[in-house]
Write a structure and sequence with these properties.
This protein is mainly α. Among the domains are: 1-111, no CATH class; 344-439, no CATH class. Helix content is 71%, strand content 2%. It has 21 helices and 2 strands. The chain has helices at residues 2-12, 31-46, 50-63, 70-85, 89-110, 114-127, 132-146, 152-167, 175-195, 200-213, 219-232, 238-254, 261-273, 277-289, 293-307, 313-327, 330-343, 348-360, 368-388, 393-404, 410-415; strands at residues 423-426, 432-435. The chain has a two-stranded antiparallel sheet with strand order 1-2. α3 (50-63) crosses α4 and α9 (175-195) runs antiparallel to α10. The longest helix is centred in the first third of the chain and has 22 residues, at 89-110. The chain is globular and about 95 Å long.
């Protein structure tokens, strides 16, 4: 949510638009008065003296409303300033109405351009969160028209408005609708990312849509949706069908919904038609869930090799880390986990969680006493895991409690002559120092 608010602020801070904005000009019935009003509002606008600018801006809108589109762009800047600085709720509400009027007139006189509708939807979502259907309607029109050409941030705001409607129990935004639109928005975002892979806006928008959309994807509904798609997507257009099947795999993988016949059907079709890193990753997840860890590792390795340094390399490395952990390959699991978070910092929490478990189950140490220090270090990694990813807190706390019960006690530390030392070095593949507990 902070990211989205940051984008609102960024757009709101865009500077005034110069009146030399290239377009056909309509000076109205009194061109002299129009020019006078234009010149009088331009200078205070440059100086961010919005109160004075607004007086003359209203004159322009009254005398020559069709003179320049930039008049309405600047009008939105002026009214955003008034809204942001207004304390009275009733007055603020009226100012938002005026801002909406500015956008409506801009569209009436200069067309419903992508830029106008995106800005309009953005401002309505920002200032009318109590009525998310306003932004939703504007942005839906834009997305229905532009489809995959819709800007990434507009796609994100559209989906956010739908989620807000759902949370407000709007009957036009049930859970199924949110899930359906998640798939559509993701399709358009993926098209944007394919065209501009380095776009920060698209990357952020994609992450935000996942953040708000994935929780709506229940297992039964995803399988139901996948079965429907599998049965209805035409087989004649093989490329289009495989593209749809790959999207289904991506969703099922995100939710770890891969223990169903439809998952196996979709995966088999994708791999037969187009062997890919994603396909082998999906097969690795399926094998891991079936406790076939050797097969899982083999498929994760294929995914990693085919991927190279592709955007999903972190996920593939994390898959290998978890499969090796399940197979009892502690050092290999920790190695893959470290590689995963080095490629994708968002995976740090999961990586620390895997490393902590690997250390706890490593068996490093020549004696039972030395092996007890592994649990101290493992607990430290669990602390890092929940700090990096709050969703892991409950699981990490459970592990910490279990590990603490296996710490060396004060008597043992005294008997081994370590009471005056601050740290203990764990050898083996771990090769880290850990603080010696004093109580």
């Amino acid at each position: 949510m902070k990211t989205i608010k940051g984008m609102f602020i960024l757009i709101a801070m865009i500077g005034w638009v110069n009146n030399s904005f290239a377009q056909k000009e309509d000076w109205g019935s009194d061109s002299l008065e129009c020019r006078k009003c234009l010149s009088l509002y331009t200078e205070p606008l440059k100086q961010k003296n919005y109160e004075e600018a607004a007086t003359h801006w209203r004159c322009v809108v009254k005398v020559c409303p069709k003179v320049k589109e930039s008049v309405y762009i600047n009008g939105a800047i002026i009214y955003r300033y008034f809204i942001d600085n207004e304390k009275d709720a009733a007055r603020k509400d009226k100012l938002v109405d005026t801002l909406a009027w500015v956008y409506e007139r801009r569209m009436e006189y200069f067309g419903r351009s992508t830029e106008t509708m995106e800005a309009y939807g953005n401002d309505m979502l920002r200032y009318r969160q109590d009525k998310p259907q306003v932004a939703y309607g504007i942005l839906k029109e834009l997305i229905d028209r532009e489809k995959e050409k819709t800007p990434c941030v507009a796609l994100m705001r559209y989906f956010q408005s739908l989620v807000i409607m759902n949370k407000k129990k709007d009957p036009s935004a049930p859970n199924d609708k949110v899930m359906e639109e998640y798939f559509r928005v993701k399709e358009y975002l993926e098209a944007n990312l394919a065209a501009t892979p380095d776009s920060k806006n698209c990357t952020i928008a994609n992450d935000e849509v996942d953040k708000y959309g994935v929780p709506y994807l229940t297992e039964d509904k995803v399988y139901e949706y996948a079965n429907k798609k599998y049965s209805t997507v035409p087989k004649e257009d093989k490329a289009a069908r495989i593209a749809e099947m790959k999207k289904l795999l991506d969703v099922m993988n995100k939710k770890n919904f891969n223990n169903n016949e439809i998952f196996d059907k979709v995966l088999a079709e994708v791999l037969e038609a187009e062997p890919s890193a994603d396909g082998y990753y999906s097969l690795g997840l399926s094998m891991n869930n079936k406790r076939k860890y050797s097969e899982a590792n083999a498929n994760f390795k294929k995914a990693i090799e085919m991927c190279g340094d592709c955007p999903k390399i972190g996920d593939y490395l994390m898959g290998a880390a978890k499969a090796n952990l399940n197979a009892g390959n502690a050092s290999t699991a920790a190695s893959f986990a470290r590689q995963a978070m080095s490629k994708d910092s968002k995976l740090s929490g999961q990586a620390y969680y895997v490393i902590g478990q690997a250390i706890a189950g490593s068996g490093c140490g020549e004696t039972e006493f030395e092996r007890k220090f592994n649990y101290i270090l493992a607990a430290e990694y669990m602390q890092r895991a929940k700090a990096a990813d709050g969703s892991l807190s409950d699981e990490a706390n459970g592990k910490i409690g279990a590990y603490r019960s296996r710490y060396p006690n004060r008597t043992e530390i005294f008997e081994h002559g370590l009471l005056d030392r601050e740290t203990f070095h764990i050898g083996c593949w771990i090769n880290e120092d850990v603080k010696i507990p004093k109580d």
